[in-house]
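G., the chain you wanted modeled:
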Amino acid sequence: EYREYAEAGLDFMYDHAWDNVNGGWYSQLDINGNIIGATNGRPAFDAHYALLGPSSAFEVFGDSLDLTKLLEGYNHLENVYWDSRLGYEGYYDWATYNGSAAYDKSFNATVDAITTHLLSLYQQTNDQVYLDRMHEISQQIVDHLAGSMPSQAIGFVEEFDSDWNWDNNETMTIMGHVLKSAWCLIRVYHIDPRPEYLEAAEVLTQDVLNLGYDHDFGGPYKDYDRTTGQMLMWGNPDTAKAWWQMEQAITAGLELWSVTGNDTYLEMADETLHFFMRYFVDHTYGDIYENRTR
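Predicted structure as tokens:
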């Protein structure tokens, strides 16, 4: 049953979401598969996450079609979004629809490449090219994301120009992003234990534990202004927690505990999971709430 659902979704993507003229994935379709905004700019976020389905499907089912689509998407990222300029390497955050230009850098363009396809591709193929790219991205996390933290009140810089200069027009930092950066570093550390990855992962996680975590009820808070340290409330009557950011704390805690044995990280995972299961799961109607107050 699950395979049928997965294949139906992937078939819809393969039939409608790939740009057969310019390459790459469209960002939006309507329910019938008609393209919305065909000539709009295309974010690396979409280009990365479009590969999560094919990557997972190939891992489970071993279908050559899924591998073909996965590699088509990966090659498009490498050809259009990757900045190979010496000293400025990284995935651009945006590209034009026809791939004629690409620009800016960001958390999403960087870290999401590991979880959506690079780690899976390396584990399934043992091809060094994917590990090399993960090392490059891990170093960008260390240098540009974690590297920006000493100058922030909380978290890190999430948006950059094409040369990795900070975009100070965007000052939001997201606790889930800080935690995800940490556990992605540890995923790569499991393959190749470079000490700078572990050091940065602990700095990232401790920043959340010290400044953006609820030690009374468990779980990370949501979003902050990195320059002031003030929580962004978004009109909520109380401090907010988001479902997906809770998951990042669980994963980061387990990953760090697995390599350090430090029970602080295990406690973070346990407390967050307890809060999630008690308050985010709708035990009456099913499914998960998007946000919860403290």
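The mean pLDDT is 97.

Shout if anything looks off.
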